[in-house]
Specification:
By secondary structure, this protein is an all-alpha fold. It has 19 helices and 2 strands.
């Protein structure tokens, strides 16, 4: 695809985003930024959450992983269903009953101010790193397919990317994002559907025959029960998926902030259960796409990209084939899909981080509107610059390995949140509030140490997603150890 067409497509795409931002941010105040005035249509929130939940990493890595793991990721997605049910039945009614803006305010009411700040800080650290890494992928796509040919330095690409997000989110905040994420999710889902249809049309045989051929190669295998030591063992994946959903959606200000913009708890629950169904279908399409990519390459004799070790570079398979094998339409929708998935994840995170910091650390709920406007402005700029700094740092430190490392580290930060909320909801005990940060820091450190030696100490056992559960349990146990009966003072 010629760079001029890449530029035209992207300029048109961002022009629509800016138009949506202008339409949704008229007469906006800080209440609009933080809560969307609690008037968001639940069906738009449900659809838009798909784009915010997925990312450029998911967009590329899930299809790529099919080569070695088949459709094992569906085990995790089945666990999501149970996790989202817990969110809709337990957590969301709690948030609505307390009329929360920041969900971590619950920790203040239940455990104390230090616990409250600790929970919010863990979210801020995790989301800042993870979202910046996801946004990095979008900047790389823009650089490779547009700015390199124009001899534009990478730092200009990164600045432009951050600036665009800041422009269309700084005023309308979460209200704008509900609509922009719906727009971006449309292109994310469309890109997968169109690519699946294009590849299927180029393979010989009916849909049933193609599915059979994928099965023969192991690309449709979903369930793994044969080796409990493996990270793919079904109970690990299923229950890990359940708690990933609870922690990374139900205890995440980013995704819960969208739910809290709905008019009432019934609308919010409709949103969550609809989102669950759509998420299962979209994830299956990503996995199907992965099998089709490898089947196409095998049948047509296409050489797959290799890494330095001579093995298939699975994260490069989808972009390589999309731009070189499937024609202009597939290339256009791949470009829009990777851009949409990266921006939908990053823009909502930027708004959520601004909200979390303003409410949890600057006490915006007790401030004047003038103070709130100025403070929100500077906090939004501050997180935008922090995103930019991380992106530029990742570029210098060879991001391919760093992305995986940071995303894994980010997963550890949700364990303490899981333990904090579980302790608050399922016990009536109080804690010595000043000791809570110590517990929440020690828990992920212990998990990291155990993860690094498990293969040697536990006979080859490899931790998978169940590490999040263990992290939450250790945090819960630590909180129990520093707890006392209700009514006792510190």
């Amino acid at each position: 695809m010629q760079p001029v067409w890449v530029a035209v497509i992207l300029l048109s795409y961002f022009a629509v985003l800016l138009l949506i931002a202008w339409l949704t941010s008229r007469n906006a105040d800080t209440e609009t930024f933080f809560t969307g005035n609690r008037q968001s249509p639940w069906y738009l929130v449900a659809f838009g959450m798909i784009g915010a939940s997925l990312s450029g990493v998911t967009f590329i890595s899930v299809p790529g992983a099919v080569l070695n793991e088949g459709m094992a990721y569906m085990q995790v997605v089945l666990g999501y269903i149970l996790g989202y049910t817990v969110i809709g039945a337990i957590l969301m009614p709690l948030y609505y009953r307390l009329n929360l803006i920041s969900i971590y305010t619950y920790l203040k009411q239940r455990l104390g101010p230090v616990s409250y700040k600790t929970g919010s800080a863990f979210f801020i650290v995790s989301r800042t790193m993870g979202s910046a890494m996801r946004l990095y992928l979008a900047t790389i796509v823009l650089q490779l397919f547009l700015f390199d040919s124009l001899h534009v330095p990478y730092y200009i690409t990164a600045i432009t990317t951050i600036l665009l997000i800041w422009i269309y989110t700084f005023k309308g905040g979460i209200k704008t994002i509900v609509y922009t994420d719906t727009f971006q999710t449309f292109f994310l889902v469309s890109s997968v559907l169109i690519t699946v249809c294009i590849i299927a049309s180029r393979l010989d045989g009916s849909a049933t025959e193609i599915w059979s051929r994928l099965g023969e190669k192991g690309y449709t295998r979903m369930f793994y029960f044969d080796d409990y030591k493996s990270a793919l063992f079904f109970p690990k994946q299923f229950f890990g998926g359940m708690f990933i959903a609870i922690a990374m959606t139900g205890l995440d200000q980013d995704l819960m902030q969208k739910n809290l913009t709905c008019r009432n708890i019934k609308d919010a629950q409709r949103n969550m259960f609809s989102f669950t169904l759509v998420m299962v279908v979209v994830t299956f399409l990503f996995l199907l796409l992965g099998g089709l990519l490898y089947a196409y390459a095998a049948e047509k004799g296409v050489k797959l990209p290799l890494n330095d070790a001579g093995k298939v570079a699975t994260d490069k398979v989808f972009p390589t084939l999309a731009f070189k094998e499937f024609g202009t339409l597939a290339a256009v929708f791949f470009l829009l899909g990777i851009t949409a998935s990266s921006y939908a994840s990053a823009d909502s995170a930027l708004a959520a981080l601004t909200t979390g910091f303003c409410i949890d650390f600057l006490d915006f709920e007790n401030r004047s509107e003038t103070y709130r406007r100025k403070g929100k402005w500077w906090v939004h700029i501050g997180f935008s610059l922090l995103f930019l700094l991380i992106i530029l740092l990742v570029k210098e430190l060879k991001a391919d390995s760093l992305i995986k490392t940071i995303l894994k580290v980010a997963a550890y930060t949700y364990g303490p949140l899981l333990g904090l909320f579980a302790f608050g909801i399922f016990t009536k005990k109080r804690v010595y509030d000043r000791l809570v940060p110590l517990v929440c820091i020690v828990s992920p450190l212990l998990c990291y140490l155990l993860d690094s030696v498990s293969a040697d100490w536990l006979g080859g056992y490899v931790f998978g997603f169940e590490m999040l559960i263990l992290n939450g349990l250790i945090t819960f146990a630590g909180l129990w150890a520093i707890s006392h009966r209700a009514g006792k003072t510190e």
